[in-house]
TrEMBL record:
Name under which the protein is recorded: DUF2007 domain-containing protein
Spans traversing the lipid bilayer: 96-114
Keywords: Membrane, Transmembrane, Transmembrane helix
Keyword Membrane assigned: yes
Naturally occurring in which organism (per UniProt): Hyphomonas beringensis
Amino acid sequence: MTAVIIRRTTGMEEAAVITSALQAGGYSPSISNFHHAVNNWLLVPALGGVHIYLPAQEYESAKAYLRELHASAAKTLEAEFGPADMKPLKSRRIRGMLTLILLSTHIAVLYLIFRGALSLKQRLLPTQKKGLPQQ
């Protein structure tokens, strides 16, 4: 029995969801590189992602099952939880928040550099005592 790749994912979460959906549909998937994704997720792109394998005879029907599941997901969610009434954040608000975060980090870094330069100046240059000039 030969195994074929039905899906490649970039993370373990997506692979676990797809594998669970296939198992719920009566298929027998297997996952490779899953433990690499758990322990060292930076290595996964070099390995080509997390692979989900199926027996070759199940491939076509499983592919059709996943397509049907994907197409009916929005309808199922709406039937279960009602229509989505979330408003997306306005792009100006997002840009403003990102600008504020970037500016605050830059100001903090500049403050640390300035403070370090002042302490270095105090250590390198001798301080003069205030008072009467020496004769």
